[in-house]
């Protein structure tokens, strides 16, 4: 039955608001329900941006855009795609961190799907409650380690919602094919549990077998309900992140963005930095501050990349060093988590600053969540060892960045090559404008997901993350490097995603890891299926 009248205006997929033509207004029963002027989508965009820029805070801007998404989905994505550099910090980091901490207090219309321990044994049944039947991408979190903000419980759904908006805006995956999920298995955040407005399961987190049984029930239910869906694990605490990735990576179509997506975008930045610093990639010495899933995920992928440069695995491992809260990771440690063991070198214990002084890394990667950990002494030590030290301050949100762009440039006499996880403004140092790069996973995961969907991938091996990193690094122009940035302009994100999707899907077809029939023109086939929000 065709809907008409007010029902059309209230359907976010159908609504064009004041852009409906006279003929459409007559046919759809909209006469009298709209102001008489017919306003194009481009003019509507101007109105949205004008109103958005009057908002006094980023959280207000987020709420404004979220409301637009609820009433006019196509206009929302049209606005996001055309203003991505300005709006990315609003719909994702750093604003999404504040959104998550306050989610239960700013809750309006929901966009997500929730699984709790009370649903045990019934997940497959109520997955059918979701209104869309062709789900292709699921972003799921358990809320246990949201950005650098810790255990936020059900409030972590904001991360899943934000990432999926970027799958659509950045790679053209239809919003109807995207599902944000939170496995709300409790929270150990006591103030949240005691908050009258907290919307989640108000009990301590499940642990042990009970936890893994709930995750497994969800993953297996997805295989039955939506067998073509890609599952992206997002913001799980490190032990669970690794355990779940190891359990499912060779069984279902999935990946962990904090481990593998971060690794891919960081590797792309490292490859670009070598063009700017003049130090060949195979000769680089890289030190990590932080020994969690992000740091070791990056290290693992760099080892693979160095092996492709002709180094043995042992030679590659010797070029990577990790410093955690207890200092340099060495073989003398009595207790080490499994993911750190490969990077435990035969070396005397050292604190962070002494490790830099003695080992002399030319690339320093922060994935610690410790805001301000790259002190003046740290940056000066890096700059004393190398003419163009490379500084990655990747921790999110902005308050958790290991240092700011201004600090990196001023403390290195303008010589540092700087990358951050959250965006920083341009810096003018001694009359020169420097553009700090942002190592944002959005450069990787939308294109990767698009490629997996296009070929109906069976699994995603590590090789696809290497491929994605190299494709991304190839998109960095000389003018970008001259400005001091290691990544291409965000305005070209859809084209970057298309190139990554094409390269990834071709590899998967060649490797026999794709279920769909291969078209003659892979890139053209993928491009023809990308979502266009234009009226």
Structure summary:
With 535 residues, the chain is an alpha/beta fold. It has 24 helices and 14 strands.
Distance between the termini: 22 Å
* Structural domains: how many: 3
**Share of residues in helices:** 40-55%
CATH class of the largest domain: Alpha Beta
Describe the biggest sheet? Answer: 7 strands, mixed
Query: What portion of the residues fall into strands of 2 or more residues?
Result: 5-15%
Give a verbal description of the structure:
- The chain has 24 helices and 14 strands.
- The protein has 535 residues and is α/β, with parallel strands linked by helices.
- It has three domains: 39 residues, no CATH class; 143 residues, Rossmann fold, CATH 3.40.50.10380; 278 residues, Rossmann fold (3-Layer(aba) Sandwich).
- The protein has a seven-stranded mixed β-sheet with strand order 8-7-6-9-10-11-14, with helices on both faces. A five-stranded parallel β-sheet has the order 1-3-2-4-5, sandwiched between helices.
- β12 and β13 form a beta hairpin.
- α4 crosses α5, α20 crosses α23 and α21 packs antiparallel against α23.
- The radius of gyration is 23 Å and the shape is globular.
- The model has no long low-confidence stretch (mean pLDDT 96).
